[in-house]
């Protein structure tokens, strides 16, 4: 079987996008549009829950937003002026519908729906304790832990129970919740995953990225701040700070790859940061060549920045197909590198006899870099110099990003020279960590108090990794023992 | 819209059938066959859960067993030698997949799957208390209460927790549960709903009716007794009596209509009881006529008994279609009684000019009796004398049978003469209560200690009806406030 | 794989039912109801074509009428007051949608839709000639030959072309066609397959059987006569006799099995004929026994007739399941005769220790008779005497009935005593041919000019069998060489 | 309803892509890959027919190649070493499966399958004559005319009949046909639509574009020449010239928009031609600005060429979403230009306060140009100067391209200044016709004998337009009168 998405296998992946609307006609339709704009943050499943003042309405589906949430029939049933939605990229084989968010529970206070971008790093430990007390889980999702903590909290009001629950979880979370009393949104104290606030007429909008505000025509107000809890109710918007203040450490990889280039993340234009990265890369590791070629589309802004800084022409040496399927049958042994060509094809007439600077955003396993380079060589490229728009990816992420285990990360296994040899390029260079911070407008990384979470590059994790340490958690808790077929 | 199943609307309905296999190759395939044989006990949904010694495997589907559980692909994934299954007839509009049994939960003791035939008559009251304590329900099913009671029980072993849970529920239940330690089966102390035990080679089989044993080639061992708890594990079969002894009161309607005529229920052949009912009816309310005609197929055995006792010929004056759909579009106003004819058509050549004794098992709303009689008249019947093979159905059932509210029960609204007038028959007679007991081999009903639950005829309910009395239960608890679309 | 329809495999099968409506509001809905009532004549596929005065609208689907033609959405699109429909039972593996009728073609005279019950016995020969002349076939159906003959006829008017086409075909056909000028219906000169005419308000109805008239509330006017061509147009109904007169020979098996018992075929009540058959059988081959048991439902009317004539009690010794699927997975080797039990189960309590007269309508392969008898013996029957309500089926049908090849017909391979031995019954008797004619009200079969087509019993075919004789037809013509997957 | 594909509505569209393989293991899998690479030439439906030496196997489906032709199950059934396939972009509402190619017919010579890129401009006239003679059409496709001409030709051999048929058709066709004797490929005498020949090991490959050869790893041999008929059989490849020689006039729009940039068409790299077009445009209509922004992706190569020639920076001022659905529900009135933003979003941080040269390949209706410009203005662009990489599109195409009628073509309704005003840009310029010819390496257009078909720009059609002239064709012939629902 051939995947037409070879690149997808060789990237880190954001696991989720969230979007919420408070107080708008056709709230569900707005959420569908917002989730469509956030589709790059999670492609496996999507869901929307609305509240019409009396009932909650939910639709969840495997697959993309388009195709599942674009029919009049579905949207009409999602009644109400308050709505939240979620795109999911699954980290495990378990992609059953019951893990698709929004998760919902009927609490003694009424319905409670939740969307979560991030990952609770002590979820297994908490789950084991909850099950011992008699809680019954519906899913294998770490997010469900939050609901059970709310349900079993000793506090009285829903808000107190919610804060009580959040104080017991560790890790990364940007949350949007729907209750009969209003919408709750919260970003973890480190602000690892993004969350922004916008306004559309009289409605409030919450979204993972500003691009989702643009698409629905909303105005960007501000980022939800790390550690901030926002309550939107008929009485308006309130902001609380229930956690002890901490130095924020937002995820640096949002700028490298996760976020869309037309988003503004933590005050920076993603496109301009990526161009600045390309310029840094041109300065750090210049090379004599005929043209700069991006791996489309993830390498394109950095390649434009590299070309402008170096004076080399920017050329589309690789053409990307817009028609992507999951897999094709391998027709026979005679065809090499077929998978890669389904998505990317060498622009042979442009490439032959040329010395190429090839720009990509990162190297994860390296398997597809290898194939791309081989494709360029077969198309007649004379030299291929690879430049990577981030430092080597050496560590797994535990905050809501799908990373292969360390043994699969090429940069965790070999040094740059060995990688160059493996990928079979004439030269290979990565951006330096300080170069990355410079592109973000910092002088350099502050090693004592890093400005960002860069654990995938440095191994410097900003929280405890309780589940990783807790050797006691029995296997049966890691997944429901029921396989629904 | 026309239903081709007009009869179905005018019968009481058993809500469930259960079937379990312990220790057989291809256990899931056996359960599929058993459920197929029990399809008459629930047609809206079905499910099977298996245990392979490590994992539980579940498949649930809306619709019939055939079509959902007959593919090699489905059965092959339901691995293991232990399996339980369930047919569901829904009482409410809420037929979402999450209510389809077996229900499953991951308890601290491991997986726990449950199939339930019956109805917990204090479920709402228990649910309210559990939610207040922090339990989160996945379904609107009364059965889920049992699981949460097990999960939150203060006892240590799973068996003790299970018994503790059952002691807190009221009502009717024939249960089969699957746990990593073995299979648990239990019948409530009154034995309202049936449950039988069989043997197939080295395996044990549990089923709602003996017909399901026949179909898989199993030998009938005995009925599970009222109040008996059976544990089947690698150590063999054990029988416990955890409840205080009570006088059993099995459901009398199983003999009238629910069970298949080829089953043996509480020691009696259903077919022979129904023939005896017909004979009683012929003696109690004889009439001069040309032939005895059953409403097929529910009235057929009683009509044969009536014909043999009376000496009148038994004739198929109404022909039933074997091809049944749910609904058809009404083509126009010119057609009367169309719905009824889709399923039953008068055998005009046989009927014209004849005096007919028409036999049906019961009258619920009376709407279709009315249409059938009109159809016979339009086909030329000279006289129609209706004879009903049970007493008037005057009361709702709270033990797992789908009954309309009392205001819809014809016999709760009018006396027999008024019913005769409404249905437009020349004469109408019901079987007497004592006649029904006689057909079952009793001298008469023992009014001080009735041998059966006959509440639908007499209003004499054998348990408290806590949820009916508890006016405090808030509406929001009766159904999840989330509508999954 | 187990079929739950073992019986279906051991019956001759009518291949089609047809139904037409001229001039009624909601014509498509009426056709859907009519086809539902004729579902027993063909279960594999169904189709409806309507004409709204301008356009033809068609829906075809694999499967039953219910489920495919009962939705408002489908019926609403089938606009117009004129409509025809067809149920199909396929004779070959080729059940692709393009063979599902009504077939449609755009002729120079406009659209032309056709429904056909029967079989053209020189279709292959005609097809070969048409293809040589440049005609391109869309299907492998013999019916399409008629359309191409109309399209290429040298005559000018559509009516003349239609008659020209029919004069060139041999075999059996009851046709209903839809054209912009009106509806055409025709029955072959022998009248092998049935076709009746009815009236509903101002509309005309055409149907394979009277039961379909009953279901839509139409009045039965008369049978379309053998060799009659009916034209229904805005000018009313006209009847033509375009063929040379021949002695009719309608199919005798319609009375034995194909037609529904509540239909009237060629002036006889099917139910009463079958009872008369049972009575003949009781006289021809009486036996001392305890009860008469039908194989349900095909043997039931004959069993009632046998019981009434013999004085033995009629009993439901075998119970038929109403829930039928196609196949189930065989769970293991320990279970014998499983397939048969899915559909029919012995009423053990009734059977044990009894001497049984078992009535079925016919024996085709004998495989399921064998299993039924074994099932009765395992349930404890002391003696089983089988009585068959027709003569031995020894010859294939070429007129629209699905018969196995002769080598599979049990009665073509052995005599009655050998069959008795094979089926393992205590005695076996078939109805005599004259007995069958007597049940139909004839004194006896007129061997010089038989009153019916009884070729399946006698081998006396009423037409030439051109395709059987024409050894020249190349294989490639028997089926399209394109397999559409 | 909002389409996420607003652009698609405002482009001319190639209607088809074709691909054939002769003599390779897994031929169907190769065709699936080739069609995937040609998906941009037709997105509504796809089909593959294979020949295994005995039978033809076909699968057709609405939708993309991926999703329909990537499963092992489908490909395994498409047996054989010879295969042809087709992508279809429908011009009318009629997209029923029976119009999906390959079309297939059983001729007297055996099976015949055909794939066609182009349009027969006298199809209606020929069809009317064929129907009058008795031919029955299965589809509304112009391509089916060719099959009936072959079927009814007076010549004897299949090859002669095929040539006879082609001599009677007018218009544009690149054909690949499958017969039991081998594969036939043919390009019309003008060579309007492209067709290329490649080699993969011992197999021959035919494809609409070279990119499809690249993807399967085949070597590009040469273009099939205008008027050339190629026969590939077990005896090898033969080339015939059955038509009178004509001056070729390949479609010039293939270079502007239809073909993929990584294809080589008529000897020119499409990417390099488009860059040359951009450079011509920069020379013809220079403007002072801050950056060059393409409408992605169709304007990108020309924008790179424009930027390189002008010295202005190339920037991604508009970001294209990779996740495309068909439609979304409009959530309310407050949101303007929503449709356009689902697919393209302004890169606000880059755009604000800037003077932009906006490059697109063509303007058809102008509706989406209007919206894009408005989107850029709302994002803060100071000036927008639109430059179009082709001359004004003023005429419909009758050779297999989906063009709106002339009244919908903006350039047919107004001059450039009026268009500038309508689209609301600061300046607007189109490429000159001679500029386009220069980018293709010609000195200028030869008006006496134009080197290309440029009728969409000039109205100079290279063939008769018989169907347009023939006022006699009755309406009923333009579409089958049967609507299959």
Automatic annotation (TrEMBL), chains A, B, C, D:
Coiled coil: none annotated. The active site is at residue 16. [4Fe-4S] cluster binds at residues 251, 397, 453, 456. It catalyses: 5-phospho-beta-D-ribosylamine + L-glutamate + diphosphate = 5-phospho-alpha-D-ribose 1-diphosphate + L-glutamine + H2O. Its cofactor is [4Fe-4S] cluster; Mg(2+). HAMAP family: PurF (MF_01931). This is Amidophosphoribosyltransferase.
């Amino acid at each position: 079987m051939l995947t037409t998405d070879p690149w997808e296998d060789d990237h880190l992946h954001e696991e989720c996008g969230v979007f919420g609307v408070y107080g708008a006609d056709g709230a569900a339709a707005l959420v569908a549009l917002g989730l469509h704009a956030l589709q790059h943050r999670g492609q496996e499943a999507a869901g929307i829950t609305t509240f019409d003042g009396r009932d909650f309405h939910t639709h969840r589906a495997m697959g993309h937003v388009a195709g599942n949430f674009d029919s009049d029939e579905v949207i009409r049933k999602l009644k109400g002026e308050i709505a939240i939605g979620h795109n999911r990229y699954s980290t495990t084989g378990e992609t059953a519908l019951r893990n698709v968010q929004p998760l919902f529970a009927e609490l003694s206070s009424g319905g409670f729906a939740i969307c979560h971008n991030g990952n609770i790093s002590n979820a297994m430990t908490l789950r084991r304790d909850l099950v011992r007390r008699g809680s019954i889980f519906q899913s294998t999702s770490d997010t469900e832990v939050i609901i059970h903590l709310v349900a079993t909290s000793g506090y009285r009001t829903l808000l107190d129970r919610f804060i009580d629950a959040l104080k017991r979880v560790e890790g990364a979370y940007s949350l949007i919740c729907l209750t009969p009393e209003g919408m709750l949104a919260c970003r973890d104290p480190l602000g690892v995953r993004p969350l922004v606030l916008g306004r559309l007429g009289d409605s409030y909008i919450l979204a993972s990225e500003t691009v989702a505000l643009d698409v629905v025509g909303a105005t960007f107000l501000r980022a939800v701040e790390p550690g901030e809890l926002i309550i939107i109710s008929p009485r308006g918007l309130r902001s609380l700070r229930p956690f002890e203040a901490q130095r924020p450490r937002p995820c640096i990889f949002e700028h490298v790859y996760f976020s869309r280039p037309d988003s503004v993340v933590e005050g920076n234009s993603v496109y301009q940061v990526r161009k600045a990265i390309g310029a840094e890369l041109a300065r750090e590791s210049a090379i004599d060549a005929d043209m700069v070629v991006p791996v489309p589309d993830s390498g394109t802004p950095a390649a434009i920045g590299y070309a402008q800084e170096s004076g080399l022409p920017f050329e589309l040496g690789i053409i990307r197909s817009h028609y992507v399927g999951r897999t094709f049958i391998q027709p026979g042994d005679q065809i090499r590198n077929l998978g890669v060509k389904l998505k990317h094809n060498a622009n042979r007439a442009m490439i032959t006899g040329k010395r190429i600077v090839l720009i990509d955003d990162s190297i994860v396993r390296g398997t597809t870099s290898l194939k791309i380079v081989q494709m360029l060589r077969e198309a007649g490229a004379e030299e291929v110099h690879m430049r990577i728009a981030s430092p080597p990816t050496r560590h797994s992420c535990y905050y809501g990003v799908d990373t292969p285990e360390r043994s699969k990360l090429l940069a965790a296994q070999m040094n740059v020279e060995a990688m160059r040899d493996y990928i079979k390029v004439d030269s290979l260079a990565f951006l330096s960590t300080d170069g990355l911070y410079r592109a973000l407008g910092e002088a350099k990384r502050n090693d004592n108090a890093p400005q960002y979470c860069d654990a995938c590059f440095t191994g410097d994790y900003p929280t405890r990794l309780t589940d990783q340490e807790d050797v006691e958690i029995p296997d049966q808790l890691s997944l429901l023992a029921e396989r629904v077929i």
